[in-house]
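new request in #modeling-help
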Amino acid sequence: MRRQILCLSTKVTQNSCTKALPLTRFLSSQEAIDRRYHLFTLEKKRQLDNVGRIEKIEVQYKGVPKSCTLIMNKGISTPYDCARHLSEWHVESSALALLDGSVYWDMHRPLTENCTLELQNFSVAEPQQVNKAFWRTCSFVLGACATIAFKDTVPVKLHSFPGPDIRSGSFIYDVDLPTLSDWKPTQQELITLAAEYIKLTRLNEPLERLEVGEELALEMFVENEHKTKQIPSIARHNGKVTLYKVGKHVDISKGPMISTTGQIGRLSIASVHKINGSAEGDVKQLYRFQGVALPTGVMMNHFTFSILAQRAKKLNPVKSPIPKPVEAEEKEEIAMKG
Amino acid sequence: MALAIRWSSSEVFGAAKWFIRRDCRALSTIPERAEEQTVSPKRERQATSRVRISARNPNLGLRHAYPEFLPDPNPKWRNSLREKLERSDMLKRRNQIDIPEFYVGSILAVTIADPHAQGKTNRFVGICIERKGCGLRAEFTLRNVVDHQGVEVRYDLYDPTVQSIQVLRLEKRLDDKLLYLRDALPEYSTFSFDMDPEVLPEGTPVPVNPVQVKLKPRPWLERWERQELKGVANIEEHLKEKDRVRRELRATPWEKYDLMKQYRNTIPIEDQNDIWAEVNHQLRQLQLTRKTTARKRTFTTPKSQLG
Amino acid sequence: MNQADVSKLVSKLRVKVLPRHRNLPGPKGPEGRIDKLRKTVTGLIKFERIELNYNRADEARQYAERLISEAIRHGDCHKPTMDTADFWLLEKELVHKLFKVLVPRYESTNLSYTRLYNAPRPQYGRSLDKVVLELRGNPYPDLLNNKSNNRLLIQNVLLDAAKNEYRQTKIAEMAKNIGKVGATQNTDSKINEAHEKPNIS
């Protein structure tokens, strides 16, 4: 397996990005997902193997029912494991961990040193960071949903999603659908998208985090020219790219994210807007998928939620990731699964 | 209506005379105002409290003169609609005849329609020993000694056969109920039927008569020694050691502090405010008309020597 | 039908009062009942949160409410109120607490002075209803875990933003209308617009 990775990395070093591009022709989107997932699991296993001899760390848990000290494995145990030592309620409700009172840490990210641990759910006194993580996760899962919702004949290239802004009223994902030049989703299609999204949340998949090197990241996103362009700027600081995986879907995100997709409760995919780019830029147009969601267990009247859903229908004012807008051209048939 | 009536024909004449001559007298609502003033400086100190603000309503003073406007404090018998209707009926009746302000201890003369009496009316004078009931069922009991025989008549305040109620002497006594007059010497409850009404100067508070009556020797109708009466002078003379011991045994010194017992016997300020706001205007109007008519009478009526 | 007692004025309690008191039976009769309630009221004023059986708690709650409302109504210079406080509070330093701490705390409130919560009762054993009785504004952490009023919760943030946006659009609309009205001198349209203002949230 290590040999495989080595093989890949050598391949990446040999071939430049432009040389790798022809490979994309042979990858359908499902194949690309599988390949990325495979690489992710391999890399994850490799990193776990790198831990080597297991060392113990002391994690001081603070909070209900009572504070205690847990002896965990360095580099292996996650806050999620700590929660499993406490109770099922902790496991299900905790969205984010707070280390040493200042560092927000994913629930599925291994702990590296002695620390104090607080588990944060959606109803803590100061939930700003948890809310942001929730909103980010919603965008992330929306990308996963958009990739699997279309038929194989429609290639889907995820572009990016902006940082979480809850007050804007909707979480978004900008997607490039190169074969659909003028697509306006019908209500039925939006409902289908939401159904796909709900299927994902029902699976209750954990959101796994992995930091990989730039080369491997480029290798993973080789068929997606938007991501390959973004990766060098992301990796500029320390040469690392943070990836998240939910189910088989792998995407780039800064994190942190909430614990599982099961924590996303009521939701609505409100609208898909077309954003036009300038004619001379490489990206002509993008589709902005918008939705609104609430955490599991938040009770809200249907009328109140309909207000939020209506508001999410408007185009989110976050700055478009592509330069100037120009007029769109042709029309094309849409084709969607389900 | 009447528990027992002993009556002589001469007094029926007297009743008619009194009824014609002195119908009513001016009422004073000053005492309540005076009471409010004594308490007010303390209240003003902490003006922020909502509780205090609601208690500062000047209408609350009406509760002494018109206690029957307050409903029964027992919540089982409350019915806001019935209470409201009763209050409006009471005001209508008060527009028909003049029902003056009086207290337990005041001496009243009441004239009622009596189809069997000579002249169709019946007048009785006596000291009010008890006021009971609320709403249209309010009642009071007059006591007098006629021909060495104690007589008590219970009248309904809003009885349509009552033709007039006249206060002959407006005063209070030391106790809330004067039922012990039944066991007191007869001179304490003897009042002549041709008593002249005494007019208090306007603005004086209702005087409290500090007289302490003397009880007859036992047997008594009730165990007066256990009731902590202030208006009885010689209760200790008639007690045996056994009675004193039992009084000690039966004493309930904690009842004075039983806050919820007090609460269940009263109508809270907030409820009273609503009630008085409803009837205040009409009651004040009635007081004004009574005052003006009384003033007219004092000037116009010639002095009669018929007495 | 009884006449209400008019010699005393009491302020209305903000808690439910049963038509009749509970006897709280015991060998000492009514006096014992009052003694029990005195102990409970003293404990409540002292500790501000106590756990006990429902019947006794409900009775003691009414007495505590009455005591505090009397203290608020008359203040500490009123002899009968002072006597009452002296009777009900078995520890005399609590009289100072009543007048100096609790009266300022509750003077301008619209709510009851105490709260009563149902407490869990043991699965086995005597099945008496247990409750927690507490004074409002006590220094302990809240018993109920209802934090839905927190403005930072995600649903509240979303709703706030929606409300804000709605207001902004309405204000913009009104501003536009005012401009239009100023130009055309047509006041009717403005009045019509002003009436169509539904409220969200």
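bot summary: Residues 187-201 of chain C have pLDDT under 50 and may be disordered.
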